[in-house]
Specification:
The complex is a heterodimer of chains A (161) and B (112).
Chain A (H helix, E strand, L loop, with lengths): L1 H9 L10 E6 L5 H15 L4 H24 L6 E8 L2 E7 L7 H8 L10 H9 L4 E4 L5 E8 L9
Antiparallel strand pairs in A: 1-2, 2-3, 3-5, 4-5
Helix pairs in contact in A: 2-3, 3-5
Chain B lengths: L2 E8 L2 E10 L4 H13 L4 E12 L1 H16 L3 E5 L3 H10 L6 E3 L2 H6 L2
Parallel strand pairs in B: 2-3, 3-4, 4-5
Antiparallel strand pairs in B: 1-2
Classes of the chains: A alpha+beta (161), B alpha/beta (112).
C-alpha cells in the first residue's frame, strides 16, 4: 500500500478517482445471494456506514436478490440479476433489477400487514420495508422489477422518498 | 460461504448446533436437519444459533416450518441465540414473540 501511495503522489495522472457508482451482475443461482450480500456490505463499510446499517443492508440485499433469483428461476430466465449502488450526497442508493415475471404489489402489501408477517412470499419484502422506509418497487419498462432502498453514509439519516 | 449443522442428544432434548450463514443456498441443509431431528421422534428440539453470523427470511421460514412440525406432535422447539444479526431479524419481523428464545442451552432446557 505504501508503494502504491508514493506512486500516486509522484504522478497525478495516476491519482485514484473516488468511485461513486458500483454494479454487480450475478447469475440467477442461489449461490449468488451471498456474493451480492458481500458486495453491498463492502460498499456500505467503505462509506463508513455504522455496523447496524451494514447488517441491515446485508439483510435487504439478501432478501431482494433471493426474490430476484426465484423470479428468474420460475420463468426459466438465465439473464443476470443486477445489483447496483450509487452514492448520492450523504446516502447510498441500492437497487436490485430482475427480469422475472413481476408480481402484484398490492397483494404483497396486504399480505405484509398480517401478524408477524408470516404470509408465504411476503416476509422478505416486508422485512426490507421495515428496515428501510425508503424502499420502492417498480415494474421495469421492458421486463421484470426494480427494488430500491437507501441508507445514510457515516450515520447520516436516510431521507424518505 | 458454508453452513455447519450438527445434531446431538442432551438429556431429553435433541440439540441442533448451527454455524455460518443461513440464506437461500444454505437453508435446505438446516431444513433437512430439523426435519430429521423431529421425524426421529424428538419432541423437544433446541436449535443453537450462537454461531450463526447471518440469517434472512429464508432461514426464518425454516425455523417457522420446524416450529409448526414439532407443535403438530405436541412437542416444543426452543432457540438459543445471542447472535446480534439473528436477533435483529427476529425482532424486526416480530418473530421474537413467536419463538421461545434463550441465551444458553441450560436456560432453554430448564425454562417452563
Amino acid at each position: 500500500m505504501k508503494r502504491q501511495a508514493e506512486h500516486y503522489q509522484d504522478d497525478d495522472v495516476m491519482r485514484p478517482v473516488e468511485l461513486r457508482a458500483f454494479r454487480l451482475e450475478v447469475p440467477p443461482r442461489s449461490t449468488s445471494v451471498a456474493l451480492a450480500r458481500l458486495f453491498a456490505a463492502s460498499i456500505a463499510r467503505h462509506f463508513d456506514c455504522d455496523d447496524e446499517t451494514v447488517e441491515d443492508v446485508k439483510i435487504a440485499v439478501s432478501e431482494t436478490v433471493t426474490n430476484a433469483v426465484k423470479a428468474h428461476l420460475s420463468d426459466s430466465c438465465e439473464e443476470p440479476v443486477i445489483v447496483s449502488a450509487t452514492v448520492e450526497g450523504s446516502t447510498i442508493k441500492f437497487s436490485v433489477v430482475d427480469q422475472g415475471p413481476g408480481f402484484d404489489f398490492e397483494a404483497v402489501a396486504r399480505a405484509a400487514q398480517k401478524p408477524a408477517m408470516l404470509s408465504r412470499g411476503s416476509l422478505g419484502l416486508a422485512l426490507v420495508r421495515s428496515l428501510f422506509s425508503t424502499t420502492q418497487l417498480r415494474h421495469n419498462a421492458d421486463r421484470g422489477m426494480t427494488v430500491e432502498f437507501s441508507c445514510g453514509i457515516g450515520g447520516a439519516a436516510t431521507a424518505s422518498p | 460461504m458454508d453452513l455447519s449443522v450438527e445434531t446431538r442428544g442432551e438429556g431429553t432434548w435433541a440439540v441442533v448446533d448451527v454455524g455460518g450463514e443461513v440464506d437461500m443456498f444454505t437453508a435446505p441443509k438446516l431444513r433437512e436437519a430439523l426435519i430429521q431431528a423431529i421425524d426421529q421422534g424428538n419432541d423437544r428440539v433446541a436449535v443453537d444459533l450462537h454461531d450463526v453470523t447471518f440469517m434472512d427470511s429464508t432461514g426464518l421460514g425454516v425455523l417457522i416450518g420446524a416450529l409448526r412440525r414439532v407443535r403438530e406432535r405436541s412437542g416444543e422447539l426452543r432457540i438459543i441465540c445471542t447472535s446480534r444479526p439473528v436477533l435483529r431479524v427476529l425482532e424486526v419481523t416480530g418473530l421474537h414473540n413467536v419463538f421461545s428464545i434463550h441465551e444458553s442451552l441450560e436456560e432453554a432446557m430448564s425454562a417452563g
